Each structure stands twice: as structure tokens, then as C-alpha cells.
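Hi R.,

Quick one: here's the Related to flavoprotein involved in K+ transport sequence you asked about.
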Amino acid sequence: MTSTKESPSGYSQFACIGAGFSGIALGATLKRWYGITDVRFFERRSDLGGTWYANKYPGAACDVPSVLYSYSFEPNPNWSRVLPSQEELWKYQKHVADKYDLPSKMTFGVEVQKCQWIEEKKRWVLDIRDCKTGVVFQHECRFLFAGSGILVTPREIDIPGSENFKGSIFHTSQWRSDVDVSGKNVVVIGNGCTAAQIVPSIVDKTKHLTQIVRAKHWMLPPIDGVYTDYMKSIFKYLPGTMMIQRLLIFLFAEIELKAVPMTTSAAKFRQKRRAYAEKFMRDTAPAKYHDLLIPDFEIGCKRRIYDSGYLACLHSKNLTLTNERALKIVETGVETDRGFIEADVIVLANGFSTNTFLEGVEVVGRDETLNQHWESFGGAEAYNCSAMGGFPNFFMLLGPNATTGHTSAIMAIENSVNFALRILKPVLDSPNGVVELGRDAEERYVNRIQDDLSKTVWNSGCQSWYIQPHSENSRVWNAMVYPYSQGYLWYRSLFPVWRDWKITGHTRGCKSVFWLLFKSLSVLAGAPAASACLYLLWKSQWNFKELYVNITTALHSIYLKSQ
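And here's the predicted structure, written out as C-alpha cells:
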């Protein structure tokens, strides 16, 4: 039986659920912007890092370039590769957290079970369970943030009999380092992004690897590469070079937005991308597997996969790719609709629960729970991907519709953190200050988001984890993808619409008014240049690859002369 007790430090001005990229961004920005260090993080795992601590499977790596998949305020000139490994990303997270003294504010091995707004105190009260002892304690805070991520809970296996299997069976996010696949028969169930990294990393060790294909995905050539020592020196010693590289990669990634709308011009762009991807897949994968691999739906409907050696490894003599339907897991393998597959190890690469947020955490606002609030809309949602009406002083990081598959989730996290801290600034010095979103503003925002998403390739009919499971007559709901550029989310985060908020107990002074005026004039001055940049980007009149090569070559020459 659990008991309730007060934690040694039972109150903090800020509290955050999770200690991954979102939590670290919050803690660092609080200190950078406002000098605030009164924050606590509650993490269920034994260390910080979130996704990049949990997922330690062979071949685990990021599929977004490292210079973009990192904090803008903490550039790293020492990345070893364009696409960093799990270990390198986790070390980067540790470095940033240590720099801002965040580990001392983190409590590990605990689960937040309930968060309730107490109107009389103008505080949130958290019920937190110690995962080892089962003891439950309480913690209070003025401002509550949810930074627990979006791909967290492994999807339940839909094949009966796993409890009878005599070998080792585990999900990719719970990879067992004590299990050696050498000389064993391995079955991998699933063929998404994770499986595409695992299979080429382990196939040569196995006696035989059988991969059960459950869906098709468009795959593109790899964008990886090694950063040489001279490139690292340029990034380290020439100011602005990392920022230029980050901007170029961001703009190059934004080209993918051209494929999103269901318009004639977008369809032509998708057709070109589809032809490019199909040629790559046919040229690289064995011909006997083309029908199992190449999709028949629009490119972009699902998240694309950058090939990291997967298609080439399908030529391995000890690998079999099959679309047999798994019926039952038995003691020694998997029974299918066509026979039996022997297995010593079964790897579940069947993905995660999607379109769900804060699973296992009951959030109680003024008049309802968060799940009740979302049910009234038809699915998970949030104004500017962060806030909900009726939940004062509460913000989500990487919340509903925050991410865009073609670019960096870290950019979305920073946008959400910056937006929330700008909204909270007027009440930071007020002990009873409260910010709360108006319901009307939330409804307008959410209806616009869902309406615009309905006109995109993501809602074009393929079986995608972007779309919430729904009945034939219910509204199609997409809580996973942002339908616009991350540049637009940055703009909305820079200039909050204050009329959408009810703020009580605020202490805004003249300085913030002048600062807002200064920012407005700055944006107005830069708007023509930014508009021209985006126009040229949209018309594809810039060859960003060539521009990037020219800039790096010039920087290399400067570096050599300096030596």
C-alpha cells in the first residue's frame, strides 16, 4: 500500500514532468532569460534524456541533421556526424544540463500520477509516486509544464501468446543489452523508422533474421556524413558559421512543405519526389522485395525514412523479408497465416501510442480533467501547441500539433518554451499571478488547425500514425503534425496575442512595453528581406546544396590561410 508524504522540497515556483530535451530547454531558458533557478523536474527513468536515454537499441540515431537537432542557444561545433548517434545526443543533453546546473533539480525514478489546480492557493499540487518504494508524496508549484514527450508508450502487441515464448521478447524502446543475438534466429516485427536502423545493425550477427513487414514506407537516400577536423575548427573559431549552417539546413528542410497541400502544384512536386524515392528503392533493394517495400500512396502521407543501410542489407543471405500475418506467438517462434517462423529472439518494432499525451497522468483543471477537455473537442489539442482553457499556469512542451515531420522537434520545443515564458513574464513577480487562455480563442485556433490539416497530404488516406483512430462518421483528427512552417510557430511564439489571455495579478512595467515596441520595429524592418527569402525558397530558385558547398569551401580557404 502506498502512503502520501511531503517531499523534502515540497514547493517550487516551476515544476516540469519529464527531463528530456523539453525539460532541459525549459530549465536553461528560465536561467538565461530571467535568472530563475527555482524549478523541479520529475522523471520516471533513472537519468535525464527522455527518448535519447530510453532508446538504446543497435543503430539508434537521429534522422535530422545534428546542427538543427540541437538548441539554438547551445550550438555544438564538435558533432562527429551529420546524423548523430543516440549516445552522442545523450552526451549533448548531459552537457547542456550540467552547464545550467539542472541535474541537481531533477528527481529520477518517480512517476507523476495526478496534477490538480487549487484555486484558493493559485497553485498546482502534484501526486508523485516513487517507482521503487511505491511511496506517494506531494509537490506544489505555481507554474506547471508537461515535457513528457510524444512517442513514449510502446504500442501494445496485437499478437496473442507472447507470455508463452521461451526465448527473449522485447520492444525496441526496452532493448535488452544482456541479450546477445549472435548465432540466433531473430524475428523483427515491424518495418518503420526504428526497424530500418536495427536490422542493418544486427543482421550480420544473427544465424537468420526474419522481418515481418506490416506496412510500406517511402525511403530516401541517406543524408549522413562525417564532420572532419577542419570543419569542426571552422565551426568553433569562426563566429556565425554554425548559425549559417543551421539556417541553410532549416531552409533546405522547409522545401518539403511544398509537398504538403493538396493542390496541383504540390501534387507535381510530390510526383517528382515519389519518382526519385521509387528509383532509389528499386536500385538499392532486391527486386524480389519491391512489392513488399514500395508504397502505392502519396509520398509525405507518412513520415519519410532516410535509409541508413537498410535496403542494401536486404541482400544478405541470412535475411528474409515477408508480409506474412503473425497469428500467434508460441514457445519456439511465430505462427503465421502461411506457416511457422522459428525464433530465439523476437524484437517488437511496432511503434508507440500516438495522438495521446500525458498517458497515466490525471490533470485536473478548474472544472474538468484534461481528457474530458480533449473529448469535448474530439481529440488532443492545444492553443499554439501549448495551452488549454481552464488550466491556469499550465503549458505543454512538444504538445499537440507541435512537430513537423520534415524538420527538427527541438525547434518546436524551443518555440513552445519561449512562448510560455513570454506569456508568464507579467506574473512572475506576483505571488498570486495567473494566466489563463480564453475558451473562444482555443476553439478558433483548434478549428483552424484541423480544417487546414484536412487539406494536406497527411490526411490523404494512408494508414498513418499521424491520424487518430476514428469511426467512419467521426471527424478525422490529427494531433501529431503542425500544418505550417516552424518559422510561423516561431513568429506566433515571439508575438503572443494578448487579447486571447486572461491575466490577473500581473506587474508588467514600461520596460516590457518598450521592449515589445522594439521587437515589433525589428520584425517590420526585416519583413521584406524575410519575405523575399521565403518566396525564393518556395519557387526553388536557390540551389541550397550548391550554396552550402560554396560557403563551406570559402570558409575552408579562410581557415587554411589563417594557419
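The two ends are 68 Å apart (CA to CA).

Cheers,
M.
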